Structure formats: C-alpha cells, structure tokens
Amino acid sequence: MSKVKIKDLERQQRKGEELDLKKLLPWISSQGLELKGDPIVTQFSGGASNWTYRLKFDNQDVILRRAPLGKKASGAHNMPREYELQKKLKPHFNYVPEMIAVCENEEVLGSAFYLMERLEGMIPRKNLPKEVEWDTEKVNALCHSFWDKLIDLHQVDYQEHGLDTLGKGEGYVERQIIGWNKRYSDARTWNVPAGKKVMKWLEAHMPKEENLCVIHNDFRLDNVVLDKNDPASIIGVLDWELAAIGDPLMDLGSSLAYWVHEDDNFFIKSMRRQASNAAGMMKRQEIIDYYADKTGRTIDDFRFYRVYGLFRLAGIAQQIYYRYSKGFTKNKAFKNFWMISIYLIKTCEKVIKQKR
Length: 356
Hints:
- The longest helix has 23 residues, at about 305-325.
- The strands form three sheets. The chain has a six-stranded antiparallel β-sheet with strand order 1-2-3-4-6-5. It has a three-stranded antiparallel β-sheet with strand order 7-9-10. A two-stranded antiparallel ribbon has the order 8-11.
- Strand 3 and strand 4 (about 60-65) form a beta hairpin.
- Mean pLDDT is about 90; it is low at about 1-5.
- It is about 40% helix and about 15% strand.
- It folds into two domains: about 10-120, Phosphorylase Kinase, domain 1 (2-Layer Sandwich), CATH 3.30.200.20; about 135-355, Aminoglycoside 3'-phosphotransferase, Chain: A, domain 2 (Alpha-Beta Complex).
- By secondary structure, it is of the alpha+beta class.
- Helix 5 (about 170-185) runs parallel beside helix 10 and helix 7 packs across helix 10 (about 305-325).
C-alpha cells in the first residue's frame, strides 16, 4: 500500500497559549537532548484538558504536553505522573509513546510539562481518515485491533512491574460510584433530573468481588494512532491522563458509553465523536461478548458497568454545562449539554430495567 499524507487537528498556536521558546530551548539543551535548530511549533486543537503541541526540529519531531493555565482541580493535570506512568508502562505495553524528558519546574513554561516521541500515523477522529479506502473487512479488522489493545492493557501485571503506585487500587468501584454521584449532584442545574434513582441503583449493585488492573479510563478511537501503511493496525495509544489501577469492566463500560451505532437514534448520533458507526464495526453487545471470550471472563449481566459508563458520561457533560451556565466558559458548543445529561440519565433508567 502506498504511503498516505498525514493530516490531523494541528493549528497555529492559540493566542495566549504560545510556548516561550526563549525559556524552553535552554531547558532542552540543559537536558542533553540532541534536538537541532529552532522548531516549527503547532498546537493540536482536539481535546479539552491538557494542551498538546508538535515541535518539528531539524532532526526530530517531538510532542510536548502541558497543563492549561488557571486554577486546577486537585490531582488533575499531573504531568509528572502522566510521564512516569507511561515510562513505566512502555516496556510492558509497547503502544505507549517513548518518553523523552519531564520538567517539574513551572517557571520554565508556567506549568510542568513533558516531551515524548511523535508517532507518525493517522488518528481517526469523528470519521475514519478519508485518505484510506475503507471497506467492511478493513473496518472490522481495525475494530478488533482496537479492542484487543484494551484487552492487552488489562493483562499487564501491575504489581509485578511496579505500577501499583498509579492509584489507590482496592476500593476503586466504591470510590468511583460515590465520587460520580457527588460530582453529578454538585454540578446539577435546574433543568436536569436529580438522577437519584440511578445513583441508588449503582450503590446497591456494586459487585461484591473487585478485580483490579491497569485501566486507561478514556479509551476511544480518537486516542489511538493508526499505521500509515496499514491503517487497520494500531501503533500507539495516547492520552493517559486518567489511567489508574481500577476495574477492567468499568473501563470497558466507560468506553462503550461513547460507542455509537449507526442504528442508534438521531440524538445519540449527534453526540458521536468517533467512527464507531462505520460499516464493519462491532455493536456494543458484540464487544462485550468478544471481551469475555478473549479474557475468559463470564459476563452474565453487564448492566452495572453499562449504567456506570453512561452515568459517568452524564456527569462529565453536566460539569461542562454547569461551567457554561455560570459563565466560566463562553463556548456556545456547550449550551445544549444539559440535554445530553437528560438523555443519558433516561438511558440509564432504561438499561436498569433490562434483564441483562
């Protein structure tokens, strides 16, 4: 297959978010990094959390990740943690980019940051890359490859490889349920349901036995990098900010909350941000069955994990809308997020009534 032109959501640096090269380049030199010349800097427009830049030096392309400006929630935007996590995980999960250097001195750029290798490939966004001639067989191969990466990640022995410092581990399920119940309630506005029925159901149906592993916590198609010469193959998994030691089925449930079918209703399709609706992609129940078969797990009733994923997403949408309603952000794309919260709460209630 011939090489294709690589495209992504790279733009000129946003005003007020420009990297200070007069401070950054001396720091790079102090680390003994052999990056030559003055870099061409672009910024990725995707994502709503940490800021991500591409620095194209004469001899190498690198990615810089840093926290945004302003007040940050406790534990959020922890660049050193994100760096160390990936560095430790890389030998055991090769789809993590190579880490290059980390800077904890906020005086350099106004925030801690780190550098990592740039993986040269394609990132599937809302739709699959147009440069590729996709057919059902190729899409299906990509879909299986995608879920295989999550399964592979969940098989990493975090205790043996010293990854048990990534999170508190034991008690993860309860912390998540209590935490998201509180976060949704705290962000609730007058125009969305209280969600008490869903909250109480989740609290009453937490699994008695807890399984723990390394989880990604934001596993979506737009967080993977495809091989430019074999687009059905994945060469990298990105955005490890939310990774933790947690429950694998909760990780799967969170991912499936974003997984939209072509035959889903119009409203949920309007929320789609990845190409899960393309012909050849597995349906949600097929994915659950595939995961169970590949891992040897018996999953008789996935409702708890499905409801958790949907409610968590409702909480995320509501937090965004709350900030918009209070004037903390002027982005008009968020003005109807309250409707997303309503839809997801109603969907949770429907799933609860199902037999499995």
